[in-house]
Amino acid sequence: MEEIWELYKNGNWVVPFLTFSIYFFVATSFILYLYIVASRNRTIKKEKLSIEYNTEIEKVMASVIFEDLSFAEIKNNKNFLVRFDTSFFREVMTESIINLHKNYEGIYAKKIEQFYKESGLIKDSFKKLKSLKWEVKCKGITELAEFNIADAFDTIITYSKARNKTLKITAINACIKLAGTQSIVYLTEHSDPIDDWTQVNIISAFKKHDIGDTEGIELLLESQNTTVISLGLKLIKELKLTQKIPFVAQLAAKAPNTIIKYEAQSILQVLTV
Q1: Residues 6 or more apart from 90 whose CB is under 8 A from it?
Q2: For a surface tag, which of 100, 143, 166, 273 has the fewest beta carbons within 10 Å of its beta carbon?
């Protein structure tokens, strides 16, 4: 210990230490600079490719939508097929046809959905559900819900109890889009507390997807989970479901706690005015 102290007092270590520190700082800065330049170049290259790919994809999809061109016929184009085999092109194409699908209805939307299935892009979306990254899972869920893939419902519903709040909300919203009020059964059995932010998102999903059939929403009022009951009351209020007044009145009479009782009574006043 004394030898180390003497070495420290002598100060012979200062110059080598400072020299090493300077060289280390310069080398680290240079490596970081190269990394930033390389990362920027990759981003620019991807942006250019994305623009180029989108131009080609728009032409192909125009033929699919308006000329009934099948994917089997598209595969005859070797240049397109080579690009289609790359993951980046498929990602760009998925984003492109999602935007198209949002702007079309009826038979045109059905054609886009059919292309999504025939091209195998649907398999990419299902693979995303198996990812360890929650943001990738969310992307896969959103894609499958956008194209109305009802077969994905059972898999997506399992993420409605995820710890990650964004993943949970994305899964619940997707299930509402895919199954409408049929997803109520799963919400009724939801054992975890549903916070206010999640409730707001669920209500927004019901409004956004314009769920015409409201049969079953009253089942939320029978849940053992008080946050689910609160969600049911908010849905009845926001959607102005006056036909559910008897169920709300019944809840107000036999509420599990005073908070739910007052909330039910408040909604009864709003609906009966």
Answers
A1: 84, 121, 124
A2: 273
What angle is formed at CA 193 by the lines to CA 189 and CA 194, rounded to 5 degrees? 90
**pLDDT in the model for residue 255:** 85
Q: How many other C-beta atoms are found inside a 10 Å radius of the C-beta of residue 70?
A: 13
For 247, counting Cβ atoms within 10 Å of its Cβ (0-12 exposed, 13-18 middle, 19+ buried), the class is buried
Distances (CA, A) of 58 to 53, 103, 124, 204: 9, 14, 20, 31
The position carrying tokens 């979306």 is: 125
Burial class from Cβ neighbours inside 10 Å (0-12, 13-18, 19+) for residue 99 reads exposed
Give CA torsion, residues 253, 259, 264, 265, to 10 deg: 80
What is the tens place of the pLDDT at every residue in 105-142? 889 999 999 999 999 999 999 999 999 999 999 999 99
Specify the length of the chain in residues. Answer: 273
pLDDT at residue 98 in the model: 94
Tokens for 105, please give them.
């209805």
Cβ–Cβ under 8 Å, residues 178 and 156: yes
Query: Which one-letter DSSP state was computed for residue 164?
Result: S
CA dihedral 125, 130, 131, 133 (to 10 degrees): 100
Residues 6+ apart with CB under 8 A from 9: none
Which residues in the chain land under pLDDT 70?
A: 1-15, 17, 209-214, 273
The model carries a pTM of 0.77
